[in-house]
Amino acid sequence: MKKLLIADSTPGLSEALAQVLSRDFEIYVCNRGDELMQQLLSVRPDVAVLDLMFPGVDSISVLHTLQGLGIRPGTAATTCYVSDYVLAALERLGVKYVMLKPCDTGVLAARILEIAQGAPPQNRQEQVRREANILMLRLGLRRNLAGYQYLVEAIVLYDRNPNQSITKELYPAVGALCGGSGSQAERSIRTCIQDAYNKRQDYLWRLYFPTGYDGRVRKITNVHFIAKITECIREILDEK
Questions:
Q1: CA-to-CA distance for 185 and 222, rounded, in angstroms?
Q2: Which of 6, 33, 97, 124 has the most CB atoms at less than 10 Å from its CB?
Q3: pTM of the model
């Protein structure tokens, strides 16, 4: 399992990221600037989240030092302020993403997964599964809900055959893959989508789903969600 080191001073961000990504990484958290270099050297993380304004440390100098030592974790930087000079320095140091605070946990988690996975996998099914995880995390779907995995498998199967019957074919197939029934798949998917919809950030959901006259995203059905996310994934993969 790959290692993720989170060094960020935002209250609650490290804990939130750790909860979302616990299935994908061996997670380490650094809370003190004077311990950052020591942890980077001892953990040797594959991916690092680095607060550019982490108290007690010059984060860019830390990255310079690591590069000189031949240690180059995939890095996502977080900051409340950034200048052209800093962006140029980070680009030279190979930092993959710079996220302005306050960061959306789902979006940052998706970026971390992108960094960890590196080059897109060659297998179509793996590509669809990867992009589904990224889009769903951006939209705030929780991975600890059973419906999350049901949804991933539903999107993979729907991409394979969008003309299949959702009720008679897709749900039973997803249920079988995940060790449940078709009705369990339907209910779990609905619960997972509703959970994220209730806590949604409208500016993100508006990128994918239609809005009503008041500018708010309308309630999303299972079928609509699966079809739209699959459509987005196909557009992403066609561009690669």
A1: 10
A2: 6
A3: 0.65
